TrEMBL record:
The lineage of its organism: Archaea, Methanobacteriati, Methanobacteriota, Thermococci, Thermococcales. It comes from Thermococcus litoralis (strain ATCC 51850 / DSM 5473 / JCM 8560 / NS-C). Coiled coil: none annotated. It holds the Pfam family O_anti_polymase. The chain crosses the membrane at residues 34-52, 64-97, 109-132, 144-164, 170-188, 200-218, 289-307, 319-348. The keyword Membrane applies. The keyword Transmembrane applies. This is Oligosaccharide repeat unit polymerase. Keywords: Membrane, Transmembrane, Transmembrane helix. InterPro entries: O_anti_polymase.
């Protein structure tokens, strides 16, 4: 299935849940902002327009350099984790390019597996075990669980492995962060061979469901006044993130305030706009609307073009789809934006050499 159809399915599902949440919890989430809804729909259509514009916008090498520059500039704003993530994708692309030339690929892959295991174990040794003590999910060491999930998703995009998937998902469940479980599952889903899909769905869907349940019970443990059930919580969460987007839309129009994409603490910044000290997610529309206002539609077009370019090679298609889908509810930040850009860059960079370097398409 083409990337735009997969993304459209996830986007439509989220928007349906978000609008349901807005109507079901109107007293908490406020009235629906029709102008914000029109912007969200226009943004979505513009993204798909960008995806389907390749024949009318055929400057592959120029685009590759734009992606590389953006990935370096934006990911650096995410701090050390963003820089390491983008460098890992770049390094992975270089290894794919030289896979048939030297033996570094195998060693690097095993090093990646070691990081998937060691990083969360370090957090656990320091007492940060959110599934047992939900309060610790707000510790700075929670980023070790995120880093583990990132490395697991990179490894699965480059080379599908059931063992890496299971290990990564186990630590994601311990972290109680649904996004950690989701990126690991999606990376494997989009990279697995057809013969693996049935096994993946049988094993993977319950594991992701378990991560969602772990987050639900962590929320109930931390917030004693939480009265919503599991299904209600999912709908409310979708509606709440959409409500945050509506706030950002109101603040950013018409020309934007540019304070999110290059902010290393974007979700804390958004929460502060509401007078809170939490981390607020703000949907895929929130960052473009707040940073660029109406000009955020150009960012949507770029996202669509980048998604189409990353589709040239399976490994980078998997990475781009994974982190673009993650942004649907979480919103764009320096980390997932940088990964999308560097994936599109390497897909273009490698695909232009396929005719002269044997085996690259099969390698990735």
């Amino acid at each position: 299935m083409k990337s735009d159809r997969i993304f459209a399915l996830f986007l439509a599902t989220y928007l349906s849940l978000a609008l349901l949440g807005k109507f079901a919890f109107k007293s908490y989430l406020g009235e629906l902002n029709l102008s914000a809804l029109l912007y969200a729909l226009t943004f979505s259509l513009t993204l798909f327009l960008g995806y389907n514009s390749e024949k009318r916008f055929n400057l592959p090498f120029e685009r590759a350099y734009v992606y590389l520059i953006l990935s370096i500039l934006v990911s650096s704003a995410a701090g050390i984790l963003g820089v390491v993530a983008v460098l890992t994708v770049l390094f992975g692309g270089m290894l794919i390019l030289r896979r048939s030339v030297d033996g570094y690929y195998k060693h690097a892959y095993y090093a990646g597996i070691a990081l998937v295991v060691i990083l969360p174990l370090l957090a656990m040794c320091k007492g940060v075990i959110p599934i047992l003590n939900p309060q610790t999910r707000y510790s700075d060491l929670k980023d070790l669980y995120l880093a583990s999930a990132l490395f697991a998703s990179f490894l699965l995009a480059y080379k599908p492995s059931l063992i890496v998937f299971l290990v990564g998902e186990a630590f994601a469940v311990v972290s109680t962060f649904r996004s950690n479980a989701l990126i690991i599952f999606l990376a494997y889903l989009f990279r697995a061979e057809k013969k693996e899909l049935k096994r993946l769905l049988i094993i993977g869907v319950p594991l992701v469901g378990l991560a969602f349940l772990a987050r639900f019970y962590a929320t109930k443990s931390v917030y004693s006044i939480w009265k919503l059930g599991f299904a209600q919580s999912l709908v409310y969460r979708a509606g709440f993130s959409y409500m945050v987007y509506e706030k950002l839309f109101s603040l950013g129009m018409p020309v934007g305030k540019f304070g999110l994409l290059l902010n290393p603490n974007a979700r804390e910044y958004v929460a502060a706009l509401f007078g809170k000290a939490n981390n607020y997610t703000y949907t895929i529309f929130g960052q473009p609307a707040y940073d660029l206002g109406i000009f955020g539609l150009f960012e949507a077009f770029l996202m669509g073009v980048a998604l189409r370019d990353s589709e040239r090679l399976p490994a980078f298609k998997a990475l781009s789809l994974t982190f673009l889908i993650l942004a649907i509810e979480n919103g764009f930040d320096a980390l997932n934006f940088g990964i999308l850009m560097v994936s599109a860059y390497f897909a273009l960079f490698l695909s232009k050499d396929i005719a002269t370097i044997g085996g690259i398409e099969n390698a990735c």
